[in-house]
Amino acid sequence: MSKLLEFINGQQDALLSDLENLVNLDTPTSSKALVDQAMQIVITRFQELLGGSVESIPQEKYGNQVKLCLGEGSGSGQILLIAHMDTVWPEGETAKRPFRQEGQRLYGPGIFDMKCGLLQGLYAMYAVVSQYKLTKKMVLFINTDEEVGSPSSRKWIEEEALKSDAVFVLEPALGPLGKLKTSRKGVGRFALEIEGVPAHSGINHSEGVNALQELAHQILYLQGLTDYSKGSTVNVGIASGGTAVNVVSGQARAELDLRIESMDEAERLSRHILNVSPVLANTKLHMRGGIIRPPMEQAMSRKLFASAQAIAGELGFSLEETATGGASDGNFTAALNIPTLDGLGAVGHGAHALDEYVELDSISLRCALLAHLIKEQMEELN
């Protein structure tokens, strides 16, 4: 057994106690107070275990972003770990569904996405520091608005990534085999506003131009931009309009989601979307939006995944990679050409679902995998 895995096995009870405490705290993205309260628990544990430095980046709308740092002055390199504290669950959810264990599965709001992964990162750092001398700085960046696209944290994530030799993202692994995510689609978000010509539907129907009719044309066009052969999808997820059933609608709107595998495809489809033209005379279209997360392309994960696969073999389990249509903060770091490996958090199922769980017997192994990856990066020349 590796020294790191042996150490982590010895810390599993403490990790599980911390996990229960953290899961039983509500941390909806929308509540700065609750997220800050939970963050303080993690900061306290970090200082108890590791005694490193803490930098809090104040935020007005969301919880404060936090950097937990070790090895200041240990060399010119840096290793960045990324986790997020916020969850999709509202205040009061943990009172309804507190942390519980059923057999070898652990349940609770946010346990899989991604409170277990956050603590695995903390304990992996603890294991490395306890067994080896640091030759590079380590930073665990804990984001507080990931579930809404990281609007306030993206700047700080990118700033830390540009200082780093490698980025390890502690989002959950995929599927029962715990596959690592070596590529992710990028995300675009757009909103369309349509102006028609309102009129009384019984008296002056012919004088009106129905914005909802124009919207129907635009939905068909936009949905038709989907190209599965290129991994590109356009989804009009919200559509509305009109004011009354007896009025030719003078306004309509829609919101759409774009997913793409490459920046070339992102630019191509963004042009098509932003330059939509009206079909009906006397209607006006106003489209706004753009790419909010660039794609995480596989080239940025290739070397790190090969290392992870070899380490997993030494630890006694097999490891596979996968692509996913979902996005994470790893999209930002990979787009900066920083080697990035994602899905290094918990193995389980049910992100954003009521049956969200983590496989108990995977926690120490995955924590050890991350610790070995950190150690390996410590040994690499800058």
Automatic annotation (TrEMBL):
Sorted alphabetically, which Pfam families does this protein's record hold? M20_dimer, Peptidase_M20
What's the cofactor? Answer: Zn(2+)
Q: Which Gene3D superfamilies match?
A: 3.30.70.360, Zn peptidases
Per the database record, which ranges form the Peptidase M20 dimerisation domain?
A: 183-273
- Keyword Zinc appears in the UniProt entry: yes
Q: Which SUPFAM superfamilies match?
A: Bacterial exopeptidase dimerisation domain, Zn-dependent exopeptidases
Going by the UniProt record, its keywords in alphabetical order are: Hydrolase, Metal-binding, Zinc
> What protein name applies here?
M20 family metallopeptidase
**Organism annotation:** Paenibacillus radicis
